# Entry
Amino acid sequence: MTQSAAASFQLVRTPVRHLVRTAMVRDDLVGWVVCGRKRLATPRGDITFAAGQAFILPRATQWDLLNEPVPGGHYEARLIAFAPQTVQRFHDRFGQFAATPALQGCASADADDAFVSTFSHASAALLEPEVSDAVREHRALEVLLLLAERGVVFAPMQELGWADRVHRLVSQRPHAAWTVETLAQAFHLSASSLQRRLSEEGTSASRCVRDVRLESAMALLQGTNLQVSEIAARCGYDSHSRFTAAFRKRFGYAPSHLRP
# Structure
């Protein structure tokens, strides 16, 4: 995954059919299925996105996702997640879409020539370390504008909850030795105050850290060729067996399942 202040890019590429249960979409997300199929479980039934289609998911939603490779091949999708301030910048700059209802569930779009060109332009900027944040934001806004002209608009930015703030902090360094004390210090709070605020949102500091580490591990397993032991270390696990146990408990299969 490549991150900037404006947006982040992630490549998902795997030869293994796998389900990701209750995947949390933390930022507004646009994904382009390049190869294989993605299925989303919804209350109204499964929705399938084939190669050549885009799926669009709003922030703060949860989904059961099934990634299916083509027979004898692989599954590949390219994702751009938009930082809340970028979505807000879009609304500030393009007021003509104020009357367009914000996306509530999921949406689809054809990955036609215009989409592929705009999406690829933004992805290239996010992947190139020499590109400035201003250019990256501009390219990300181009994707949002393209979608808005097709009737898909994300909701304006709202104040982040404390769980979101912790998730964003930990995601910058998932390998660090995070404790409630170090997290609270970063927010200029006491440990008890941070725990109380997280408890009011139905979570805890340790759960936030664990969620981010396992989500980061899934992204690395899907998008890189790193060894499982290296991924465990990058995500804050000094024990391979503890990492495997935690990953299996969260996703229902061992990390090695994605490394055939």
